[in-house]
Amino acid sequence: MIKKIPGKVLTKINEKIGFRFITKFASNGIINLGKLVPGVGAVYWRWP
Questions:
Q1: Residue 35: which H helix or E strand, with range?
Q2: CA 12 to CA 7: how far, in whole Å?
Q3: What is d(CA 47, CA 37) in angstroms, rounded to the nearest whole number?
Q4: What is the spatial distance between Cα 45 and Cα 42, in angstroms, rounded to a whole number?
């Protein structure tokens, strides 16, 4: 079903969803990202 949808339409849908996601979760996302970044760095540097 998704293969029948033109690429331009999917791009527009992704833009709308992404914009809503950013505006809805911007303040919480920034706080959570700040908590996540040190953990990601620790995992990256300890990865064999």
A1: helix 7-46
A2: 9
A3: 15
A4: 5
pLDDT digits (tens, 9 = 90+) for 2-41: 567 677 777 777 777 666 665 555 555 555 555 555 555 5
Under 8 Å CB-to-CB from 10, ≥6 apart: which residues? 2
Residues 6+ apart with CB under 8 A from 22: 29
- Give the CA distances from residue 11 to residues 4, 18, 23, 25, 40, in Å, rounded to whole numbers and listed in that order: 14, 10, 18, 21, 29
Residue found under tokens 């331009």: 8
CA 37 – CA 42 distance, rounded (Å): 9
